[in-house]
Write a structure and sequence with these properties.
The chain is of the alpha+beta class. The protein has a domain of 52 residues. Helix content is 47%, strand content 17%. It is built from two helices and four strands, in the order H-E-E-H-E-E. It is flat and about 70 Å long. Keywords: Signal.
């Protein structure tokens, strides 16, 4: 009885490790595909402001392509917002939205 329980635990562990390894590799592949797609299709050249999720935290990006690339494979998601919210913010610095206006 103990032997069969031990075998079941080992098999469950192997299965879990296999599934988690395949999930991480597929998300990495998705990230690579996302990056290739942005690099192929994006041609933005103007400064963009983005908000981190729904928080009041903004970041100025050199262009919208940089924002889209930052969303590839990341747990953070930057949503494009009015550039006025990043007025006065340096590029690639995360600060509260509108704090550069003071």
């Amino acid at each position: 009885m103990r032997a069969s329980l031990l075998v079941c635990v080992i098999l469950a562990t192997v299965f879990f490790l296999n599934v988690s390894a395949s999930n991480s590799s597929s998300s990495e592949e998705g990230s690579q595909a996302c990056r290739r797609n942005v690099q192929r299709n994006c041609s933005s050249t103007t400064k963009t402001c983005a908000r981190l999720g729904r928080a009041n935290i903004c970041q100025a990006f050199k262009n919208d392509c940089q924002r889209q690339l930052s969303n590839c494979g990341s747990k953070k998601f930057y949503r494009k917002v009015d550039v006025a919210l990043c007025r006065g913010l340096p590029i690639d610095v995360v600060r509260p939205c509108g704090s550069g206006n003071n």
